[in-house]
């Protein structure tokens, strides 16, 4: 193991070397970056990845992810727009980066917080050091701070807003950073899906990529679906194609007419960032119209929340969200428990759902809703990510459930 430098003082305000009452203590020795939270607290660390522009460090919600692998997929998952990700697993970066594990062309996360300094990559698939990859995509990182303390703070107090600052000149204006973190409006009410969505419709055609172990290659397409891209992860589109679907992707703001013009056998609603209620302003009317035409609908994560809204339910913000690869969920249809991968900060309020909606999945961590199905039309959705493989292929059956629904609807 390479030697790593010790943790820096975790919180500038608690720095014993800072004079009493000093709200702007100097950066501790060795600190080149800091994370400033909306409540004014400061976590010092060592910067890596891209420097932040002077006076314009990115503000975002600071969340945590407990996954032990998949940092590149996490960083490129468009659902992380507007967020700084704290990785609770300490060794991030040690398998480098490669072009196959991207969930989107570029990362949208505003920054990452890790415990250990990023080491040289040790993996045959690596084509680039994480540090260089982050630099090339303009994403700043901070290492060497107490990610446990930060995670405990998020767990106990909810996900705070924060600013990650890694200035090239090593100067920190903590007052300005505190003001910036305090002024960031937060994710509630924020519509980010249309920012990360594709701009033009396109056909998903990716037959030559490496497939997840044991998942097989693309089957000859039997049915045609339109996937509405609210910030879709590539592996979802891959899984739809692997289940035998011909996939056309359309922008988040596509109207029902623009969706139905493709004469789809089914409509898929993707994952995506931001507040579903804000996204719903344009998405919900389109989904409602698709539902009225009785076209089969399947939604994942943000797509699940939007389907919940379209069916008459409400969504709310969870205190700290579910982000990681070990989240137990019970499928109430089969009684089976799946270990799932998740990344969401909002949820469907089960109590708000009309009687024409059945709850199909529930979180065994906190009892929140993880899946629903309409009883009067062909539509279902899950809050978690069946395209990810946190262990075995627990949740891939949902893509086949979608195909079955399409076939039943076609009368085939
Ligand atoms: N992964 C997702 O689709 C996230 C959905 C939504 N932005 C949330 O945080 O709950």
UniProtKB/TrEMBL annotation:
CPSase: annotated span: 1-217
Keywords in alphabetical order: Amino-acid biosynthesis, Arginine biosynthesis, ATP-binding, Glutamine amidotransferase, Ligase, Nucleotide-binding, Pyrimidine biosynthesis
Record-listed E.C. numbers: 6.3.5.5
CDD domains attached to this UniProt entry: GATase1_CPSase
Compositional bias segments (type: Basic and acidic residues): 14-26
Pfam families: CPSase_sm_chain, GATase
Keyword match Nucleotide-binding: yes
Residue ranges occupied by any Carbamoyl-phosphate synthase small subunit N-terminal domain in the UniProt entry: 31-165
Reaction(s) catalysed (UniProt annotation): L-glutamine + H2O = L-glutamate + NH4(+); hydrogencarbonate + L-glutamine + 2 ATP + H2O = carbamoyl phosphate + L-glutamate + 2 ADP + phosphate + 2 H(+)
UniProt enzyme class: ligase
UniProt xrefs under PROSITE patterns: GATASE_TYPE_1
UniProt pathway: Amino-acid biosynthesis; L-arginine biosynthesis; carbamoyl phosphate from bicarbonate: step 1/1; Pyrimidine metabolism; UMP biosynthesis via de novo pathway; (S)-dihydroorotate from bicarbonate: step 1/3
Active site: 301 (nucleophile), 385, 387
Annotated stretches, region: Disordered: 1-30
The family this protein is said to belong to: Belongs to the CarA family.
Quaternary data: Composed of two chains; the small (or glutamine) chain promotes the hydrolysis of glutamine to ammonia, which is used by the large (or ammonia) chain to synthesize carbamoyl phosphate. Tetramer of heterodimers (alpha,beta)4.
Record's protein name: Carbamoyl phosphate synthase small chain
Biological source species: Paracraurococcus ruber
């Amino acid at each position: 193991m390479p030697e790593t430098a010790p943790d820096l003082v975790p919180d500038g305000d608690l720095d014993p070397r800072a004079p009493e009452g000093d709200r702007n203590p100097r950066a501790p020795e060795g600190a080149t970056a800091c994370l400033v939270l909306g409540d004014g607290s400061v976590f010092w660390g060592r910067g890596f990845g891209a420097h932040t522009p002077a006076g314009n460090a990115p503000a975002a919600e600071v969340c945590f992810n407990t996954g032990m692998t998949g940092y590149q997929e996490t960083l490129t998952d468009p659902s992380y727009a507007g967020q700084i990700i704290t990785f609770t697993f300490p060794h991030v970066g040690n398998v480098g980066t490669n072009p196959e594990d991207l969930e989107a062309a570029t990362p949208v996360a505003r920054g990452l917080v890790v415990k250990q300094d990023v080491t040289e990559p040790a993996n045959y698939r690596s084509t680039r050091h994480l540090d260089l990859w982050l630099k090339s995509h303009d994403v700043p990182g901070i290492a060497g701070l107490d990610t446990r303390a930060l995670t405990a703070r998020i767990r106990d107090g909810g996900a705070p807003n924060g600013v990650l600052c890694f200035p090239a000149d090593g100067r920190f204006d903590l007052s300005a950073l505190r003001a910036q973190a305090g002024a960031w409006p937060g994710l509630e009410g924020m519509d980010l899906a249309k920012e990360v969505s594709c701009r033009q419709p396109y056909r998903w055609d990716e037959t030559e990529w490496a497939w997840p172990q044991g998942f097989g290659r693309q089957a000859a397409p039997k049915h045609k679906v339109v996937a509405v891209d609210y910030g879709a992860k590539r592996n979802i589109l891959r899984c739809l194609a692997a289940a035998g679907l011909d996939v056309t992707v359309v922008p988040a703001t596509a109207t029902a007419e623009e969706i139905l013009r493709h004469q789809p056998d089914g409509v898929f609603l993707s994952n995506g960032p931001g507040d579903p209620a804000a996204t719903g302003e344009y998405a919900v009317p389109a989904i409602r119209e698709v539902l009225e035409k009785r076209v089969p609908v399947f939604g994942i994560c943000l797509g699940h929340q939007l389907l919940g809204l379209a069916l008459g339910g409400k969504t709310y913000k969870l205190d700290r969200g579910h982000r990681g690869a070990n989240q137990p969920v019970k499928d109430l249809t089969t009684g089976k428990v799946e270990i799932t991968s998740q990344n969401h900060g909002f949820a469907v309020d089960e109590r708000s759902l009309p009687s024409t909606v059945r709850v199909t999945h529930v979180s065994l961590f906190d009892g929140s809703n993880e899946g629903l199905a309409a009883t009067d039309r062909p539509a279902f959705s899950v809050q978690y990510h069946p395209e990810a493989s946190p262990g075995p292929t627990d949740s891939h059956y949902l893509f086949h459930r979608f195909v079955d629904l399409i076939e039943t609807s076609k009368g085939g």
